Amino acid sequence: MWSGGGGSVYWGSKGGESRGIVVVFGWVSLQESQLRSFVELYSSLGWNSLVCHAGFLSAFYPEKATSLAFFVLNELLEELHIKPCPVVFAAFSAGSKACMCKVFQIVDRSGKGHLNWDAYRLVRNCVSGVMFDSSPVDITHDLGSRFALHGSILSRPGPSKVVSWIAKGVSSGLDALYLTKFESQRAQYWKNLHSSVCMEAPYLIVCSEDDSLAPYETICTFTQTLQNLGADVKILNLSGSSHIGHYKNYPIQYSDAMATLLETAASTVFSRKLQRLEEERLEGQHDEISELICDLQNAAVNSNQCLRRVSSGPGDSFSLTSSTHDNGRTSEDEHREASSSNLNLLQNPPTISAHSILGQMLYDVCVPKNVEGWDIKFSGSLNGQPYASSRKLSPSHNSKCLRRSRL
């Protein structure tokens, strides 16, 4: 369980085997006893429940609502990474304003600074249904006063007069403080709710003509807008029911409508989205393979270009042939030049000078340039064979030479 200044987030029910997850967005107008009855209903239908019970100020401070939204999404991601399953959002009263609209804004990538949208892409693909109960409520400058004087607030624990006085004083102050900001918040609020159409999930809206906090005219306008955007919307009008009292007054009709939505979300919508997820996964693998092949091809091209630059350097005795044109030269011209170079090598074979450093290293001697004036004298034998000794004769010893050989 997580609890902060903006509200609390916890698991209402979490079993080992379930068909999906219902995310409950409530506000202070939703009492704990009512909240437990909804959690039990979802559990009886085989669904787990993640509860986001927003505080009173979350409906007035977008920062608090955004903080709650991120925590809800992160909690969902932990479960969906283990096993993807259908997710249904259920908003009660002003819970649509206190948190749900911010979840839509983050998932729809329309919020400024939400750079981590790809991390919540899995949540977006798993959302398979949306339900509004006594919601959405319209955002006006007297929002706080209207709820403070309503029975849902007065019935909270504590002396009714004290609770009414405190709630009315705080809400009136907030209404006066945020009078200039309500219009911009209101426009963004409805925009976020309308953006949920992109999730391609069916809607169930439970309302009543006798609900003063969520007027029937507002509900009808919202429904018509969703339908114009291509959404599948079912509206359940329960006459004579009070705000968030529809399930209590009409348990059978309410349970049947909710069971139909959850069944459609699990069997039809999520199955279609699961197939799309599989196609995206296969497409991602194909893109990785294609990218690897392109990298290998680019590496091969770069290697060939490097070899061409080396072969075109001065003093090279080899060349690369190519079927492509390189600076206007064809493969036939390169072949002709290679043949001419080979012919020159045959006619003028390379030689090594004996007097060069390489020659001395190969022959391990220093070959004299001038051998004139050297005598070869056979003065003995080695193993029966004569061997010669040589020395350089000076002009004064020319007469003593027995034999003179001139190389």
TrEMBL record:
<feature type="region of interest" description="Disordered">
    <location>
        <begin position="386"/>
        <end position="407"/>
    </location>
</feature>
<protein>
    <recommendedName>
        <fullName>Transmembrane protein 53</fullName>
    </recommendedName>
</protein>
<feature type="compositionally biased region" description="Basic and acidic residues">
    <location>
        <begin position="326"/>
        <end position="338"/>
    </location>
</feature>
<feature type="compositionally biased region" description="Polar residues">
    <location>
        <begin position="386"/>
        <end position="399"/>
    </location>
</feature>
<feature type="region of interest" description="Disordered">
    <location>
        <begin position="312"/>
        <end position="346"/>
    </location>
</feature>
<dbReference type="Pfam" id="PF05705">
    <property type="entry name" value="DUF829"/>
</dbReference>
<dbReference type="InterPro" id="IPR029058">
    <property type="entry name" value="AB_hydrolase_fold"/>
</dbReference>
<dbReference type="InterPro" id="IPR008547">
    <property type="entry name" value="DUF829_TMEM53"/>
</dbReference>
